[in-house]
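Students often ask why we bother encoding 3D structure as a string. The short answer is that it lets us treat folding as translation between two languages. Here is a chain of 207 residues written in the first language.
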Amino acid sequence: MKKLFLIFIIYCSLLINNCLCQWEFQYAQGSSLLDCDFINQNTGWTCGDGGVILKTTNGGVNWIQQNTGVLKRLEGIDAVDANILYSVGWFQTILKSTNGGANWIIIRDGPTGTGRSFNKTYFLNASTGWLISDGVGGGWILRTSNGGNSFDSVQINNSFPRDIFFKDAFTGVLCADGSYISKSTNGGVTWNQVTIPIHNFGIPNFY
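And here it is in the second language, the structure alphabet:
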């Protein structure tokens, strides 16, 4: 019995050690990184302060800095595939790449200190995507169906939306400060707040 118990303890110890070894620290040349997106186990991008976007093609072992042409804080990045990427950030910044990040097209780049700041973006495909931004009196969702050439916008009754996701061209959700979750079933034209049971956890912010 003691022998079986000892084997069990050793097994548990090895299992815990294996679980603890699944994560490794990654360093990004002194920048604060705020979002990342991978298209497979090897290829991904991350963005952050100072207009920084980094790319890895070996699962994060090495990162290559890409030239975005902007110096403002980039809050969100979304990779549609190996070529098409979008990134958004402070003061009306919207960027797009059509060659895997080697070059970036500046769709919008407002003056520092002016205009709305975009927090996150999600693209269903190369053409159709949504962006969220904060705003006094309510946040905004911008939608494009032509790859960022033009946008439609709608306001929601939360000033600090944090993330957005669509499972198809019609159904999507967004989350925000104050335990706020909202759902759209018509591609983001209208939004309906969803009540979340938070019990005794106060009013947390959702990201």
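Translate back mentally: The chain has one domain: 32-194. Keep this in mind for the problem set.
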